[in-house]
Design goal:
The complex is a heterodimer of chains A (250) and B (323).
Chain A lengths: L1 E5 L2 E3 L21 E3 L1 H17 L3 E8 L3 H11 L3 E6 L7 H12 L6 E5 L10 H9 L3 E11 L2 E8 L2 E8 L2 E5 L11 H7 L4 E5 L7 E7 L8 E5 L4 H11 L4
Helix pairs in contact in A: 2-5, 3-4
Chain B lengths: L3 E4 L2 E2 L2 E2 L1 H17 L3 E7 L15 E6 L8 H15 L3 E5 L2 H14 L3 E5 L1 E4 L3 E7 L4 E7 L5 E4 L14 E4 L11 E6 L13 E5 L9 H11 L2 E5 L1 H5 L20 E5 L5 H7 L4 E6 L6 H4 L2 E4 L2 H16 L2
Parallel strand pairs in B: 1-4, 1-6, 4-5, 5-12, 6-11, 7-11, 14-15, 14-16, 16-17, 17-18
Antiparallel strand pairs in B: 2-3, 8-9, 9-10
Helix pairs in contact in B: 2-3, 4-8
Classes of the chains: A alpha/beta (250), B alpha/beta (323).
Bound molecules: flavin-adenine dinucleotide (FAD) and adenosine monophosphate (AMP).
The site of adenosine monophosphate has 23 residues of chain A, from helix 1, strand 4, helix 3, strand 6 and helix 4.
Amino acid sequence: MKIAVCVKRVPDSEARIKIGADGKSIDETGVKFVLNPYDEIAVEEALRRKEAAGAGEVVIVSLGGAAAQETIRTALAMGADRGILLQVDRQVPDPLVAARVLADELREGGYDLILFGKVAIDDYSHATGTMVGELLGLPSVSAIARLELTDGKGTAEREIEGGIEVVEFSLPAVLTAEKGLNEPRYPALKGIMMAKKKPLEVKQVSLADAGVDVVGITLPPERQEGRIVGEGADAVPALIDALRKEAKVL
Amino acid sequence: MTGVLAVLEQRDGTLKRVSHETLAAARVIADATGGEVDAVVIGPEDMDADGLGTAGADKVFLTADDGLALYQGASYAATVTARARSGAYAAVVVGATALGKDLAPRIAARLGCPLASDVTAIEVDGGIVVTRPVYAGKAMYRLRITAASCVVSVRPNNFAPVTVQRAGTVETLAPVTGGASAARTVLVKEPERAALDVAEATVVVSGGRGLKEPEHFALIEALAGAFGNAAVGASRAVVDAGWRPHSEQVGQTGKTVSPSLYVAIGISGAIQHLAGMRTAKVIVAINKDKDAPIFKVADYGIVGDLFEVVPRLTEAIKKIRGN
Ligand SMILES: Cc1cc2nc3c(=O)[nH]c(=O)nc-3n(C[C@H](O)[C@H](O)[C@H](O)COP(=O)(O)OP(=O)(O)OC[C@H]3O[C@@H](n4cnc5c(N)ncnc54)[C@H](O)[C@@H]3O)c2cc1C
Ligand SMILES: Nc1ncnc2c1ncn2[C@@H]1O[C@H](COP(=O)(O)O)[C@@H](O)[C@H]1O
């Protein structure tokens, strides 16, 4: 099993977002960056599949600045074999731009499986993996919470509103991981030590024109702090009154 | 290019509510540019796409094929893309549902145009400008589309359906297959409990660790039942504890919801939970801790023991709703 996992360096989910001086990006000072949580699930799945097959290779691919090396090392510490950084010096403004660069890297790789997270928790595009599948002409299933693989064929389940879609496909395939697929392992100290010695190749890449311009990034309107209508069950009539007369939602 | 292609969504041959929102979003662009809205409907043979003129469609392209009754990513994308190519549209608009989040990137990749996902507002100002939440709703991007065409997926519950007088003429659109190697959806399983989805419901009643035991979620279900049209949501704490299915989780690693009313019960209001519900129109919180962060975003709060407050609230809602 030769498996590629695409991973992205993103601000930690606890990070406070501040707008940068240009008004078009976030201020990264003091922000902790992590391996995108859904990509962690994808890495875990790749490791389990390789372990089950008894042989193979798990390759981590990331597109980003030099700092993304750290993110790749985190995946290597979990147990992946080697990493590739597709280095760029600016923000990737559209998922198709990222997907094209990733697809170019993956196309000749001879992978049986190419895994992604379902969404990156910074840009929330929910798109890159599925786009790579299309660009490579491979079957793809997004946001999977269950996966079975046997003899070059697979069945995946993805949750839809009020149901679960069961999707069949053959390998090679592109899959994007949803929470619930597995519980990612924490890198052990030994893994962290070993990761430092694993190969990490850096390639400079250039980005195509995106066809979108960032006009600006703003903080969402603060919700007006509301009010406590009262204490205990006796406050219920006051709440009902507010919902009917002020909020008009009843 | 002035026209817009709206991709509508059906389940079991019935159009979903989000389809009307998708048409409304498409009209925002078309009305500003003086273009028309064409709609694509892909569904089973007995699919009926009449009467969409009043929801904003000038023309409806209907692909009625039993092989496409269930969502088939590659074939749906190939069929929509074929139509998009012959129409030269300024935008293809899709609802950002489970289906749309899979379909929109496929269309964008095939057309080679940018994708704006989960858009909450659209303006036309010498071109299309969209607003979309990023960083788990902690910031908003405004993006100007500079490409000749684009794909936009719109977040459910953000574009109010319109009532207009348009032709809504139905034409047949031939299906295009996604290719032999494509993945195939073979069935849609019923979830363990058939319930309204949190991401689609107009009222969401969510419970957290304050409920103490999984059995006590009966209180949450009873309140949701009293509203009649409410879905049950949950915090990650209770999903991780195995009390509730992941499909009900609201938040950064769960679903993003924007209902007209969100009721948070026994939920502290961690930043990752707020990420999933802060765009709700009205938020109500019931918590015994007056300093719980949930009260910072709630429009109305009751400080108190949920085991006393919720049954009383359920009775009151029942009286109003008459059920
Ligand atoms: C990467 C990451 C992603 C995450 N994603 C999510 C996510 O998607 N969704 C999510 O919800 N969380 C998420 N979390 C977890 C989040 O940080 C919180 O731990 C979680 O939301 C807490 O759930 P809770 O409010 O139910 O529990 P608690 O924080 O324990 O709150 C329970 C509340 O119940 C109240 N209470 C107790 N008894 C009563 C009573 N009798 N009557 C009234 N009130 C009572 C308490 O005052 C308290 O405020 C994530 C965390 C991380 C690190
Ligand atoms: N710059 C990137 N480098 C590597 N993988 C990426 C990058 N951007 C997105 N991805 C992958 O695509 C998934 C979905 O991202 P997105 O479409 O941006 O929400 C992520 O979970 C990653 O697996």
